[in-house]
Amino acid sequence: MNNDLIIKHILIFKNDAVGDLVHSLHAINNIIKNNKDQKIIIYLSERSEKFSFLINNDNVEFKKLNYDLSLLEKIKLFLFILNTNISKVYILAPKIFYFWLPPIFKKIKFYGLCINGISNYKRPGEFLRKYLFKYVINNRAAIFKRDSTEIIQYELTKDINQLSLESKININIELSDALKKYLPKNYIYFHLKKDNFDKLGWGLDDLDLLFNEFLKHYENIIFTRDIEKNTKHSETLNNYNTLDFSNGNFIKKNNNIYLYENITGKNLYNIIKHSNKVVAFHGMMTNLAAIEKKQVIDLWYSKITNWNEYRNNRNAFYEFKPKYADYNFIIPRKNINKTINKMRYAL
Length: 347
Fold this sequence. Notes:
Number of domains: 2
Radius of gyration: 22 Å
Strand content: 15-25%
CATH class of the largest domain: Alpha Beta
Structural class: alpha/beta
């Protein structure tokens, strides 16, 4: 007899981005804590699977589903649910396909994170919501201050023995040999996001101004980037110390600025964890820093030309803002000097 048919299973759908995974950690930990007698299967995406180390428990198994599910994946998932003894399903990645499962598998308790948007948009609609055992709503149409998505998901999953949202999530992972050898002391970490640099009209001269300001406060700078290679930017950025994690090569230059190339997963987490401060455009890096309650300057890029854009940005701010004293938000300006002036109070 197949043991999977006997053991009760809980499925958690979280196949989205790394930042979204971070906002679900307290909720996922609640599910794990309150279901120690069941096997828990967590579905991560190709974007977040290398960060499964953020969740650590003996009764957890990780599987991968693409961020955008293929038809074949949907069929395989349907058959897996059909042939497995599943007691609960938590839909923490609110993709519409998942909400069509509750009307079919009525004996399973489905918990769902639902979305309301402007113009009466609802995901899923009221018809599918009535099949959920319990659901919470992330109301993106709201024009008032509201709870973050972390708190909303926590409310969905809390139980009698719930964890406190104030409790720190402890991630202890050993430094790799490369970091043991090349990680400097007293450094600020910065992530160079090309798309936002382009939108702001910032270039390499602006980056130099930013780095010069950082070096007034910290001995070293470590930065990562998502700038495409084989461009003029790459040639100039090669003036810095460079550690390539794809092959372990280290190129030494006569300065205190380190470019870490091709870094991900545990290595990325550790350079954030061991930094003195994190400066980055809002996203994965700032979310990972929030786990460790690091000192953060979040460069919240926003282009506001009308009321709807203002409301969308304001809602996103409330949806994703971590709540602790050392997390600072700055709206960057096209004039780099004005942006640096706004940063100085937090540097």
